[in-house]
């Protein structure tokens, strides 16, 4: 018997003897019941302490939000096409990767995670979603660190059993990156199969705006341009921040993608002439309005901005009937100008041609 239990047992015997001497005998059955419950509780505590000591520790530093609680398993699936699989805690031990919070189903011994459960033979939708997220985060990390994105590394991110869905996974990951960051993932080296991110606007440092490492800021700029267009080609600074608050972007608060967003919007984008910031007359305290800058008119169109916003919302651009009609008029006017002055027609960019996109999506 452990020392703690011996002390408790000895203490109970002393109390029993003292009570008997005072004429208050205790019920033996009740004493035995208490003894059994105490023994079971002590045994359970000992097992819990042993389990904690035996739990493996990650050798790398922890990623915030990396450990997710285990959900109860379900033997039935409401979706007949995508069989369910057993979720398990996610513990990321890679220094070079940062993963968003989410419940992922693990279906192989990939190095991106340390614990996994095997799902059924057919492809699991949760697993495909997981690998799409892995590819997105790997591509963005490599871009952030200014490192080459190799196809072989993207394939290694995906567990072998799902590599026959390679095209589907990459296509979804690249589309998600395009929707959020307004950049295209293209193959820049067809011999060695290296990829890179190309901004839809010619922002400095491949969309990072400032020198150094970081993620593209093009998505934020396109979002602001779209909002200005939706507001009648002019939007107050107050309305812009109200809208950006829904995206959890706040003035004066550091953002993990946009850093200090107030400086980025009111200084950097204005200095680069993508935005114009003008004071509203007779406003006290001073209030400002934003409009498109000359660089925005040169490098994009209202139709492209509308399509970007509509794609991110999952709707058709024609849903915004007034803005869509205005964007069509602008497209027709520009077509007339290009027809009259062919020298002003923009040169086609092979990076965005349909043939090139198909080539990017097909592994060789």
From TrEMBL:
Question: Which segments constitute the MAGE domain?
Answer: 128-327
Give the start-end ranges of region Disordered.
Answer: 1-85
Q: Where is this chain compositionally biased, Basic and acidic residues type?
A: 18-57
Q: Which domain of life does the UniProt lineage start with?
A: Eukaryota
Q: Compositional bias (Basic residues) spans?
A: 1-17
What InterPro entries has UniProt attached to this entry? MAGE, MAGE_N, MAGE_WH1, MAGE_WH2, MHD_dom
Q: Which Pfam families match?
A: MAGE, MAGE_N
Per its record, how is this protein called by name? MAGE family member B5
Q: What is the lineage of its organism?
A: Eukaryota, Metazoa, Chordata, Craniata, Vertebrata
């Amino acid at each position: 018997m452990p020392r703690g239990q011996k002390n408790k047992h000895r203490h109970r015997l002393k109390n029993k003897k003292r009570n008997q001497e005072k004429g208050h005998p205790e019920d033996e059955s009740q004493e035995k019941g208490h003894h059994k419950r105490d023994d079971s509780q002590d045994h359970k505590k000992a097992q819990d302490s042993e389990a904690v000591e035996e739990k493996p520790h990650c050798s790398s530093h922890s990623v915030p939000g990396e450990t997710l609680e285990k959900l109860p398993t379900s033997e039935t699936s409401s979706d007949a096409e995508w069989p369910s699989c057993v979720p398990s805690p996610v513990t990321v031990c890679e220094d070079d990767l940062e993963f968003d919070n989410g419940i992922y189903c693990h279906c192989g011994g990939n190095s991106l995670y340390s614990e996994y459960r095997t799902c059924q033979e057919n492809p699991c939708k949760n697993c495909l979603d997981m690998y799409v997220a892995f590819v997105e985060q790997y591509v963005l990390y490599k871009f952030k660190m200014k490192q080459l994105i190799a196809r072989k590394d993207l394939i290694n991110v995906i567990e072998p059993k799902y590599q026959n869905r390679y095209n589907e996974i990459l296509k979804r990951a690249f589309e998600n990156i395009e929707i959020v960051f307004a950049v295209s993932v293209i193959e820049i080296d067809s011999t060695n199969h290296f990829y890179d991110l190309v901004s839809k606007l010619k922002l400095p440092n491949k969309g990072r705006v400032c020198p150094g490492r970081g993620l593209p800021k093009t998505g934020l700029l396109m979002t602001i341009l779209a909002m200005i267009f939706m507001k009648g080609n002019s939007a107050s600074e107050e309305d812009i921040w109200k809208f950006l608050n829904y995206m959890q972007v706040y003035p004066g608060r550091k953002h993990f993608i946009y850093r200090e967003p107030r400086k980025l919007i009111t200084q950097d984008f204005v200095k680069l002439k993508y935005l114009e910031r003008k004071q509203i007359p007779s406003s006290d305290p001073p209030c400002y309005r934003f409009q498109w800058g000359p660089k925005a008119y040169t490098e994009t169109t209202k139709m492209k901005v509308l399509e970007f916003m509509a794609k991110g919302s999952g709707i058709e651009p024609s849903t915004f009937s007034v803005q869509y009609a205005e964007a069509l008029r602008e497209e027709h006017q520009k077509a007339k100008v290009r027809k009259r002055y062919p020298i002003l027609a923009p040169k086609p960019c092979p990076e965005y041609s349909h043939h090139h996109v198909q080539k990017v999506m097909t592994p060789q």
